[in-house]
Amino acid sequence: MKKIIIILIVVAAASAGFYFQQNQTTDDATPAITVNKPAISVVGLLRPEFVLPDLEDKARNISEWDGKIRLVNFWATWCPPCLREMPAFIEMQEQYADKDFVVLGIAIDRKDAVQDFVDSIGVNYPILYGEMAALDLTTAYGNRLGVLPFSVFVGKDNKIISVHNGEITAETIKNVLLSQNVK
Fold first, then answer.
1. Pairwise CA distance, residues 84 & 103, whole Å
2. What is the pTM of this model?
3. Does residue 2 contact residue 81 with C-beta atoms inside 8 Å?
4. What 8-state DSSP symbol labels residue 27?
5. How far apart are alpha carbons 151 and 162 in whole angstroms?
6. pLDDT band for position 183 (50/70/90)?
7. pLDDT tens-digit map of 140-180
8. Which CATH number fits domain 2-179: 3.10.560.10, 3.40.190.10, 3.30.2310.20, 3.40.30.10?
């Protein structure tokens, strides 16, 4: 029952965010994102382009990590399953960083909340943030349901390998990496 309530809260929050974003005006400070409505499945398609700020407010382009296998994880500080999976991401980043693998966290949250949280747990991978722009980006990456956490594996060839709604484990990450001949 508790899990159902959490899922309903996450869906309601994502829906509210989407509504507010759709009814918001934009200005030149809005991060650049190429948003295409996802097909039935985005697996096998080229990953969408985007630019979002990191926690030092430096604009970062997804292409910076081209040539690596990327785990692009959309999360928020208010999302319990998002927070539960982060220790596995820290572990996998440490274990596979020298094997052309990178975890890329994209927070759908305010910078100050994100900074406080990542500092407290010692995140060792790049964190970008984008509030509602990041929520739009989840759609471009295939998150048709608007759930968090939402993770996408992108191959060295920039094609989407797989998408995962909800919490993932270190074992899931290892299995995807093995499928890409990363050991």
1. 15
2. 0.78
3. no
4. -
5. 8
6. confident
7. 999 988 899 999 999 999 999 999 999 999 999 999 999 99
8. 3.40.30.10
